[in-house]
Amino acid sequence: MKIHSITLAYFSPTGTTRRVLESIAAGITADGITRLDLTPPEAQTRATAPLRDTLVLFGAPVYAGRIPAVAAERFRRLQGEGTPAVLVVVYGNRLFEDALLELQHLTVECGFRPVAGGGFLGEHSFSTAELPLSPGRPDAADLQRAADFGRQIREKVWRIAHVEDISPLSVPGNFPYREGHKLTGVAPVTDAALCTRCGACIAVCPTAAIPPDDPAATDPAACILCCACTRACPVGARALADPRIQQTRRWLYESCSARKEPEVYL
Ligand SMILES: Cc1cc2nc3c(=O)[nH]c(=O)nc-3n(C[C@H](O)[C@H](O)[C@H](O)COP(=O)(O)O)c2cc1C
Fold first, then answer.
1. Tens digits of residue pLDDT in 53-80
2. For 90, what's the count of Cα atoms within 13 Å in the CB-facing half-sphere?
3. Domains of the chain in sequence order
4. Is any ligand 1 atom within 6 A of the Cβ of residue 27?
5. pLDDT digit string (tens) for 132-182?
6. Fewer beta carbons within 10 angstroms: which end of the chain, N or C?
7. CA 122 – ligand 1 centroid, Å
8. Model confidence over 15-61: pLDDT tens digits?
9. CA distances from 209 to 45, 78, 206, 220 (A)
């Protein structure tokens, strides 16, 4: 099969997943690339036509060894018609556990045929200057590996005559999946003395958890702790400072700092 078109379908609050997908797509090379950014809240309800005549690259970050629930919901709105797909999870140097398997099950249920999958590295959303967690990743070597993966995908797809000939992909993970747990009652806090009410945090929040008229009143029930807002704040007024998060940061820093490398499955 020849790849004429690529569709990037991703949920990527802090942008690392998107960057990895872009490099994979550059390695595949196609006449056209369409981007379906499922990160903004509108993606929860936006209608999308079935995806056909394209290779879909699905990308999601790993949250507690799983696909973020909100990302899974948005992916479920996409429909394939035996459409070939590449599955990519991006994680912060701890583990990706069941996330890739979950993405495989989900996309197959939606009518896609996975041809390849990968676990890539991104700077951990909880990373700070004091406790850096996989800082700067994906770095140049990661993006090179992503582009090489793209070339491997192109060669594999070229060798396949029809979508029906795609054999089932084997990826690591366990089912039933690991139970995802979310800290309750936690959300970033705003330093009112620094906040200029510019709205940058509101614009990037994937779950509309920050009320437009009161950025300090982040709804902890809606917040997924993605840290898009703390990264986007131009004056450093927002921080995820809860002691439980700080404890997690310290544990990650002490236990998960040894560099991990991308893994691909073809
Ligand atoms: C709530 C939450 C849970 C996370 N859980 C994991 C995890 O289980 N393993 C891991 O290695 N990284 C984990 N991370 C880090 C993200 O997977 C990583 O930062 C990823 O690069 C973020 O992708 P994005 O830039 O596309 O948003 C977690 C991040 C958040 C916010």
1. 999 999 999 999 999 999 999 999 999 9
2. 32
3. 5-176+259-265 (3.40.50.360), 189-241 (3.30.70.20)
4. no
5. 999 999 999 999 999 999 999 999 999 999 989 999 999 999 999 999 777
6. C
7. 8
8. 999 999 999 999 999 999 999 999 999 999 988 899 999 999 999 99
9. 16, 24, 8, 7
